[in-house]
Amino acid sequence: MNEKKYLLYIDGEFREGAKKESFPVINPADESIVGLAATGMVEDAEAAVQAAKRAFYSGAWSSFDAKQRSAVLMNIAEKMTERQSKLADLIIKESGSTIFKAKAEVALAIGTIVYYAELIRTPYMYEPVIPGAGERTNSYDFVQRDPIGVCVGIVPWNFPLSLGMWKISPALAAGNTIVIKAPTEAPLVLLELAKIVHEAGLPSGVLNIIAGSGRVIGEYMAQHADVDKISFTGSTVVGKRILALSAASNLKITTLELGGKSANIILEDADIAAAIDGSLFATMLHSGQICESGTRLLVPESRYEEILTGLVTRGKNIRVGDPHKADTGMGPVISKKQKEKIEAYIQTGIKEGARLILGAEGLTGPEYEKGFWVSPTIFADVHNAMTIAREEIFGPVLSVIPYQTEDEALRIANDSIYGLGGGVWSKDKGHAVEVAKKMRTGTVWINSYHVLTPAAPFGGYKQSGLGREMGVQGLMAYTQSKHIHVDLGNNNAFRYKWLLK
Ligand code: NAD
């Protein structure tokens, strides 16, 4: 075999896994092998956690001041920028992303590390001295933000680089050390990132990146007593398992970014042409494999037929094919298993009485003989109780649900176990904001979708997650606060006399 092999990055070294095994990473567009990834085993996870622990307690990183940490993070950002085409190319090959999505992902990843490198140079860590007890007794109280310690980040395949950086950047900015578990389907871009980080002068053991089975090494680290914090992004079912393992071991500080079934509401007064294109973008980008995709489209009955016609006409324009081609709008789905899961949901939609208005014809031709393809699929006449409106499909499947009144639209939008993203389309932006405020979800886009900034917190209500990443909150999530009381004179006599007569 001539495929390029990517090694694990542990304690500042590139290593084979403990059993010297590797696994092929498959290009979902043509089933070719993109490269081999060294298989991390429990022994490797243990080595990575111990390296992170040694690095943390040595103070090699945690005792750096914010200015020094910021400089190293900026150096990583610069090196990522120099190699952005290579990073984007790997993302296209291993996860079937289009050029647009891959470039946007690399930009978001670089933007995230730059944001945190800059944030820690502001006085975020210093809360004001607390008056009160101090005034009365000639003492003062202050609160300091400390790093948490050894962190673990578990990353899914749909945005491997940017979601990896959502964990790496704030963790390192706050002075922690971290072990990243790269996704099994798309581990290469994170293993490539390890090479960049290595050159950028991060002390050994501060960042470790390993690949391998989630069930084996992910679970091992989720119950490891030396891990102080775990940040997981992935499905709700695995997220619950992580939380249980964390609670049953050492009660790690746990952040969960999980699944979604987001509602995208077109209001009666919306610019319908813009709302139609926006709603297709909200669902079909990255073949619907985005956690906050707007997969339930709520449409006013008064404009129902007009919107359905527009969705079909514009939906037929989505060019599905080779993600390396500039005119491709939608690439493959990640794997055969994912394709079969999506197709089963489409059959369930038909059986439960939803009306298939786009997608029935399927994809034919030599381009689709290899790889995992699902054509853009739209169901009309969906009821919110149907399986396709309740469960996360994670594929290019849009469920259109009619509503009569705005109150009904909000009731439907909020009737979900999830609450991750959402949209509102209206010419009256003030009114759209009022609607957005009533949606029980972590992010709402008005007349837009999928637009993220490192400066705003991201995360879910309900079973879409626990805690937030990004923004100032995302940095705080990698710190713990410590209250320090300082006696400035000998002020304790009046307290002691009650005990020491
Ligand atoms: P997944 O839960 O199967 O896997 C996510 C990660 O967890 C992978 O690295 C995997 O190897 C690992 N893993 C799997 N089983 C594990 C276990 N038992 N213990 C520890 N780790 C384990 O999810 P996926 O299929 O990779 O990604 C799709 C899911 O991720 C969707 O549900 C999507 O909504 C969600 N997601 C959420 C966000 C968010 O920010 N909320 C972002 C992207 C994806």
Structural write-up:
With about 500 residues, the protein is an alpha/beta fold. It folds into two domains: about 5-130 and about 140-260 and about 465-485, Aldehyde Dehydrogenase, Chain A, domain 1 (3-Layer(aba) Sandwich), CATH 3.40.605.10; about 265-445, Aldehyde Dehydrogenase, Chain A, domain 2 (3-Layer(aba) Sandwich). Helices cover about 40% and strands about 20% of the residues. The chain contains 17 helices and 22 strands. It has helices at about 40-60, 65-80, 85-95, 100-120, 135, 160-175, 190-200, 215-220, 235-250, 270-285, 305-315, 335-350, 385-390, 405-415, 430-435, 470-475, 495, and strands at about 5, 10, 15, 20-25, 35-40, 140-145, 150-155, 175-180, 205-210, 230-235, 255, 265, 295-300, 355-360, 375-380, 395-405, 420, 420-425, 445, 460, 465, 480-485. The protein has a seven-stranded mixed sheet, sandwiched between helices. It is globular, with a radius of gyration of 25 Å. The structure holds nicotinamide-adenine-dinucleotide. Nicotinamide-adenine-dinucleotide (NAD) binds next to helix 8 and helix 9.
Task: Write the SSE topology.
Elements: E1 5-6, E2 8-10, E3 13-15, E4 22-26, E5 33-38, H1 42-58, H2 66-82, H3 84-95, H4 99-119, H5 133-137, E6 139-147, E7 150-154, H6 160-173, E8 177-182, H7 188-199, E9 207-211, H8 214-222, E10 229-233, H9 236-248, E11 253-257, E12 263-266, H10 272-284, E13 296-300, H11 304-315, H12 336-351, E14 355-358, E15 377-380, H13 387-390, E16 397-403, H14 406-414, E17 418-419, E18 422-425, H15 429-437, E19 445-446, E20 461-462, E21 465-466, H16 471-476, E22 479-487, H17 493-496
Parallel strand pairs: 1-5, 7-8, 7-10, 8-9, 10-11, 12-13, 12-18, 13-16, 15-16, 18-19
Antiparallel strand pairs: 2-3, 4-5, 6-22, 11-21, 14-15, 17-20
Bound molecules: nicotinamide-adenine-dinucleotide (NAD).
